[in-house]
Structure formats: structure tokens, C-alpha cells
Amino acid sequence: MEAIPKLIVFSAPSGAGKTTLVRHLLKQPELNLAFSISAASREPRAGEIEGKDYYFLGIKEFKNRIKANDFLEFEEVYRDQFYGTLKQEVERLWAEGKNVIFDIDVVGGLRLKKKFPHRTIAIFVKPPSINELQIRLKQRKTESPEKIAMRVAKASTEMATAPQFDVIIKNDDLDIAKAQAYQTVKDFINKKVERDEEE
């Protein structure tokens, strides 16, 4: 029986450490992972590269692609700031025989799980506390106090969705969280799954 490529979804409030865990897993060749690059309607930030960090579509193009049904999932995260997963991105990586790993917000993560219930594992990365999250966001020094306040307010709502995920990894000790993430993903990749009805 052919191995069915899987979807590995990591979601978390901003600052919980999901990107660090995803980068760690991508360095493990035996997991055969490839990163799904999200599309964004915003302009690139300093140092961000088109086709590596995001596909920067601009607001008009993004809305056109929504109308054309080009997304597996998308969300307006903040007003006029859209993020989403293009169907062609996942198809491209599956064609290479890769398991696809995502670093996306909780709404997008749960939508993918709903769309591909058998071949997706949805993992929620939980910060030790909202207070710790605020400290981490401030330490990044990449955003204004207003933007941090917005992210912290959103985090409380996102934390409430944690029980809807398959696995919750609490990230208060990074080495332990990395080990848990690795074992969870490895076990899921080795598990036999059925194809989803969507396909």
C-alpha cells in the first residue's frame, strides 16, 4: 500500500514558539517534511523573501484568488490583512512525496483538519501563560505596544480553541517541547491513514 503524504499543522498564539518547533522538525530528514508557504495580502517586512517566507499577493490579488476558490483555507486575521494556504502549494509538495508542515493560526489549522480529517494532525502549542507570552512578544522588539496588546487579546481567544486540537504541547521548556513535537509527528507519519473524501 502506498504511503499517503500527511499534513502536520502547528497552531498557537503569536509568541508561543510554534515557528521554533516547526524549524526544528524541518531539520530532521527522516520525517520527510516540507514547509507550506502561506500567502499574505500584506507587504513584506524587512528581510522577508517572496516565495520563501510568504507569497505576497497584495490585497486585490488575494481577494481575486478567494473568488477563484484557490485556497484550502484563508482568514482575515486583522482588518484587510489576509493569510491563507493555496491549494497549488500543497499539491506541489504532495507531488514531491513530502509530508507538509504548516505554521498557521488556529482558525486555519482547524479548517485544514476539518477538510482532511484522516491525513492531518493538528497540534496546538501552548505558552506557559498569557503573561509569559506578553514578555516574549516584547522581547522580540518587532512590534508596537498597540500591536502587542492586539496579539495578547487575540491569544486569550486562541487559547480557548486548544481542546479542539489533536495534541497540545505546552512550551515552557523548549527542549522538552521539541522532543514531544518530534515524537508526536514521527508517530503520526508512521501511522497508516485512509484517504480523505475531499480527494
State the main characteristics.
alpha/beta, four-stranded mixed β-sheet
List the helices and strands and how they pair.
Blueprint: E1 7-11, H1 18-26, E2 33-35, E3 39-40, E4 55-56, H2 59-67, E5 71-78, E6 81-86, H3 87-95, E7 99-103, H4 106-115, E8 120-126, H5 130-140, H6 145-159, E9 167-170, H7 174-190
Parallel strand pairs: 1-7, 1-8, 2-7, 3-4, 8-9
Antiparallel strand pairs: 3-6, 5-6
Helix pairs in contact: 5-6
Quick take:
This protein has seven helices and nine strands.
Q: Report the count of strand segments.
A: 9
How do the strands of the widest beta sheet line up side by side?
A: 2-7-1-8-9
Mean pLDDT: 92
Largest sheet: 5 strands, parallel
Distance between the termini: 17 Å
Task: Spell out the CATH superfamily.
Answer: P-loop containing nucleotide triphosphate hydrolases
Q: CATH first level: which class?
A: Alpha Beta
Class inferred from helices and paired strands: alpha/beta
Q: Can you tell me the CATH architecture? A: 3-Layer(aba) Sandwich
Considering DSSP H and I runs of 4 or more, what fraction of the residues is helical? 40-55%
User: How many DSSP H or I helices?
Assistant: 7
The fraction of residues assigned to DSSP E strands is: 15-25%
**Low-confidence residue ranges:** none
- What's the alpha carbon Rg, rounded to whole Å? 17 Å
Could you state the order of secondary-structure elements as H and E? EHEEEHEEHEHEHHEH
CATH topology: Rossmann fold
Number of domains: 1
How would you sum up the global shape? globular
Structure description:
The protein has 199 residues and is an alpha/beta fold. It has a single domain (7-190), classed as P-loop containing nucleotide triphosphate hydrolases (Rossmann fold). The protein contains seven helices and nine strands. The strands form two sheets. The protein has a five-stranded parallel sheet with strand order 2-7-1-8-9, with helices on both faces. A hairpin with a 2-residue loop joins strand 5 (71-78) and strand 6. Helix 5 runs antiparallel to helix 6 (145-159). The longest helix has 17 residues, at 174-190. The mean pLDDT is 92.
